[in-house]
Amino acid sequence: MAVPPGSSRILLLAMSAIATVVALGSTYALTSGPAEEPAPRAERNYADLPPDDFGGPVTLTPSPSASASPSASSTSSVRPSASPSATKTRPSDPANRSGDRPSEEEPREGEPLGSPPPGAGSPGPDDTGVPPKKKLRVHRGDLVVRTPGQVVDGLEVHGRIRVEAPSVTIRNTKVIVPTGSETAGISNNNANGAGMLVSNVEVMAENAAPGVNGVVGHDFILEDSEIHHVTDQVHITGSNVIVRDNWFHDNYHFESDPYQGGGASHDDSIQIIGGSNITIADNRFTGAFNAGVQITQSISAVSDVTIRDNLLGGGGCTVNIAEKSRGPIRGTVIRDNRFLSDQRIDGCAIIHPSSTKITHSGNVWDDTGRPVRPSRG
After folding, report:
1. Among the four residues 44, 111, 145, 279, which has the most C-beta atoms within 10 Å?
2. Which residue range(s) make up the domain with 355?
């Protein structure tokens, strides 16, 4: 019996709709469904790293005599005022060669302080993080991504995101790391997460806690994002990393950090502990107490690092290069950056060992336009 023309049209439209849903299913699997997902999802610990560089174990276990939480200050991104009890240290201070703060400096306590307004062309609140009109769906608990090519879009994650599959994209998403989850907000620090793209995200700690970092791993691109109120915004553990057009500000700093044996925390905007083929470009750095960019070679040799076209501030010295007994760092290029005059060591924009040769040009002080001269440490 012949099928009426109207029924045939309805059948064809239904088949087309089903095909469209199947094609889009992998992209929107994480952004569909109920408004909240209350069930937490477990995340494996990433590789153990030296506590003096990374913040120690994943789980914070304070001593019985310790208070509920250490006293934290968000490092000021404006030039600190003079204090009778804190004197400036010259760039030759040997304590700074290993990436530590000078021993004469005491951390400042107080409420989080804001960053200065961005200069022309510098990333800031209007062009980093989640777009203001983007509607976010709440996800409570850690999120582990194991599907290759998965797109995570439009979430507010009260937990951490761990990427364990290649070519994953995380975009238009806010990550709030809970207290007691002292790890990274987003990580791909494993053998399977290469090719991660993180775009237009915001990462922050729920409360002041030592050991909470922003993005950690290797083989990733981080762009157009805002990371703040954590200890380290970015930890690079291996090769093939691009960090561009981001705003890093308001690091948490602790006078007594349990991950540093009770000493002061080592908060950096970016720390590179191993890898090659690393580009840091067109970012805005303010608010780190230890360094804006710290290279330590803690887990492997570092080479071929380019730092260009950034607005750089913070730290004892803003760019601090240490070899850690692994020999000279090859292929380091630092060019065309503007430096804020907010270092705790007067005039120390860049410090590096004499055995590590750097290529530098076009670096100037933002307030005067005068050339920046690297210091030897």
Report:
1. 145
2. 88-376
